[in-house]
């Protein structure tokens, strides 16, 4: 009898704790949550809490960084997840908090979580727009008026420099903070979580000029293959998004859409990430209602958990490397890089490192840096079913004031990598590799994106478990 009472009380307690978790954290509570999380230690995991700046009203924009990588190791990709860019779309802020806990708690026991944290650094900004959030209300499903950063504020997702147009809207403090953040950390993969639809939106959002008769012609990037793949990884690992018709008024084939096809915008954050910083960012629309009742959060979390995990893992598919001076071995920052066939340049970081997400295949990387001979490096991105790994290169640049006709012979370094020094004929222009034998003649042929997507995990089983839990609770209470 005593035992039975104990079980009932225990179940009740678990139920209450369970409930308390599922609410929207106001700005004060969210800061507290992050500070507590930062203090909660777990063997192998390192947390760091930092503010990237302040909102219009002076609220800190807190970022929690989570990793299990070694501090000084090179080649670690940085990922970021952003919530509440629109004040009235706060589902993402709560999903991010639960995702942080899920990663911390799963480290060491869940092999996918462990691999992810052992090989990446994840930065969470759950509250990019605290001022707008403070003005919004639960159960407000539609409307635009408090998406901005406070009264008289701006839509932050129209506030960034644009790839094709001049953005005349003055930059808000939140925008400036995110821009600075992107300068400080060489992010490679990112997602901004929104609400009001169920779809993954990929760049470009901006359109060069409309020469088409179509209402909203696509505006695609040179990395379209990668963006479609990333978008599909998310939608296919979500139990309903990939069906494309989750909300009443919209249809999206496969649950993904090019931003410009949906509706073109100027000054969007994802385009800025990609075109100005080489960071691939997607806009994740994860709930039909922008600000649903807190009671809907458990299901929203279950629906997005696996999709987020698989999405983050994509930061480990592609190439990384470090660019060094061949004599001094000093890192070369701000070298200009380009994957042959993809007309979009990116740069090496302060530490001479670079990252680029790519589908499996054979590639060539064109590297140029002031004062050095241009180089073309060929490499392979392998296909991994589980535990993906970035191809790692070390690229030694030869000072262009040193003559190549001397005895300097190119040296072979990283396995599977061919590095050749060549004299550039025209300054800055990409050059071809002199020895044809070392370059695979075929251009890369990425496998069909569908074959790369890991099938949806049985997230329905968790729903099922919850169901069993509630049924057992009722049975216990009846006893
Ligand atoms: C935030 O929520 C907590 C309860 O969780 C409450 O005590 C506090 O007053 C709220 N703060 C503001 C500024 O609304
Ligand atoms: C985060 O935790 C570390 C370790 O406990 C501590 O040194 C640091 O001050 C904390 N950061 C913030 C912003 O609270
Ligand atoms: C490559 O991109 C630049 C800058 O966007 C553009 O001016 C140029 O026309 C592009 N070249 C090709 C071949 O698409
Ligand atoms: C290249 O070598 C020359 C002569 O040693 C030196 O003055 C110059 O700074 C070097 N360039 C770079 C980019 O290191």
From TrEMBL:
- Catalytic residues as annotated in Swiss-Prot or TrEMBL: 285 (proton donor/acceptor)
Which InterPro entries does the annotation name?
CarboxyPept-like_regulatory (IPR008969), CARBOXYPEPT_ZN_1 (IPR057246), CARBOXYPEPT_ZN_2 (IPR057247), Peptidase_M14 (IPR000834), Peptidase_M14_domain (IPR050753)
Give the UniProt entry's GO cellular component terms. extracellular space
* Keyword Manganese in annotation: no
Signal sequence, start to end: 1-19
Name a biological process GO annotation.
peptide metabolic process
List GO molecular-function terms, semicolon-separated: metallocarboxypeptidase activity; zinc ion binding
Query: Which keywords fit this entry according to its UniProt record?
Result: Carboxypeptidase, Glycoprotein, Hydrolase, Metal-binding, Protease, Signal, Zinc
Q: Which cofactor does it need?
A: Zn(2+)
Location of the Peptidase M14 domain: 23-315
The entry's family comment says: Belongs to the peptidase M14 family.
Protein name (record)? Peptidase M14 domain-containing protein
Species annotation: Zophobas morio
